[in-house]
Amino acid sequence: MNEHQYHQMVDALFLKIEAWLETSEQDIDFDSQEGILTISFAMGGTVILSRQAPLQEVWLACVQGAFHFQYHQGEWVTLRQEKLAEILVACAKQANVVLDINEFTI
């Protein structure tokens, strides 16, 4: 994938995550600026997603750690095949927020 395609895919990913968060009845704030999507949970906890264009990755940081995702066979996954949506659900759970993974599709 070239750099333009990468940026289009990450833009689409961030928009899908934002739409997913908006479907939740939980108190979740998010802000997307300069290639970074910051998600804040009312009960505490923050998730930061950032573009890493030179590597064509998306990095996620939360209380559980840092994760690096690459686009592979239609999904954003880590080298251990952890899916981005699953990690987001786990991070939200740490902040006592329940996200329905069935509502998220890439």
From TrEMBL:
Transmembrane segments: none
UniProt-recorded Gene Ontology molecular function terms: ferric iron binding; ferrous iron binding
GO biological process: iron-sulfur cluster assembly
Alphabetically ordered keywords of this record: Iron
Pfam families (alphabetical): Frataxin_Cyay
Keyword Iron: yes
One GO cellular component, as annotated: cytosol
Family, as annotated: Belongs to the frataxin family.
UniProt-recorded name of the protein: Frataxin-like protein
Protein source organism: Candidatus Berkiella aquae
